[in-house]
Design a protein that fits this description.
This protein is of the alpha+beta class. Helix content is 27%, strand content 36%. Strand 1 and strand 2 form a beta hairpin.
């Protein structure tokens, strides 16, 4: 890996130049962060689980016509993806009240929302990924109106599909975060789904018990973080024998 050219390193992944033009290699790390990197830790083997879960979900979404950057998995921790220009927005789709929306609107955690709600956040760690409106997005040129239309439509499509997929294995999709990028093909540009879909980017609760099976276990010091990630993988059938996951460290920055 040291001989490869690193393109970008984020909280959960490292991107390297790919073997072919227009491709990148995404390496899934074991690092865990929360509260805009204020809380940091490491879950040994988490990258393996998230790589396999995201591979499975991206492949299923491609099968229903949601274009995304996934090409193929290379090994337990890495996948080949299409190179895109990331649009600096996080699209958060909420089905049930949890996290910041509870504080902002005085909602109780677990309260079902009247309908799925999409919120937009600016991808900027220094600013704390602030909530923004479509007027902000248009005025500052972060995404053009047709791009927003595409991202909104794809987000609702992903929500419909994943809600059903997870429900079938006894998991409720509370909310999730998506990122999109511009793929350039000659003179053509299209918006496609990028980044990952995993317990790092979704809130997932057991249907019967409401047990949290996602990164909230790390955020809220609920314990059993490795077991929760492994349980999602087991129910999806992507890893029959998940690796031995261990929380190596957890600290406040």
């Amino acid at each position: 890996m040291s001989r490869r050219k690193k393109v970008y390193e984020g909280k959960a992944k490292i991107l390297y130049e790919g073997p072919e033009a227009g491709t990148l290699i995404a390496h899934f790390k074991d690092d865990a962060t929360a509260f805009n990197n204020q809380k940091q830790g490491q879950i040994e083997g988490k990258g393996v689980i998230n790589n396999r879960i995201s591979e499975y979900l991206m492949t299923r979404l491609d099968g229903i016509g949601v274009p995304n950057h996934f090409i193929r998995r290379l090994n337990m921790r890495e996948q080949l993806v299409r190179k895109v220009e990331i649009i600096p927005l996080e699209m958060v789709c909420r089905n049930v009240a949890a996290g910041t929306i509870c504080k902002r609107f005085g909602l109780s955690e677990g309260e079902k929302l009247p309908r799925p709600i999409i919120e937009y956040y600016l991808k900027d760690d220094d600013l704390g990924d602030p909530l923004v409106s479509e007027d902000h997005i248009s005025a500052f040129g972060w995404a053009a109106p047709p791009e927003m239309d595409d991202m909104i439509a794809m987000t609702f499509r992903v929500n419909d599909f994943l809600s059903g997929l997870f429900c079938a294995i006894g998991i409720q999709l509370i909310d999730f975060k998506l990122e999109f990028g511009r793929q350039f093909e000659g003179d053509l540009v299209r918006v496609i789904l990028a980044d990952e879909i995993s317990p790092d980017s979704c809130r997932l609760w057991d249907v019967k018990t409401n047990r949290k099976l996602d990164k909230d276990r790390f955020r809220q010091d609920l314990g059993d973080v490795p077991e929760a990630y492994a349980e999602v993988a087991r129910r999806l059938g992507v890893l029959k024998e998940p690796p031995n996951l261990t929380v190596v460290k957890a600290k406040d920055a």
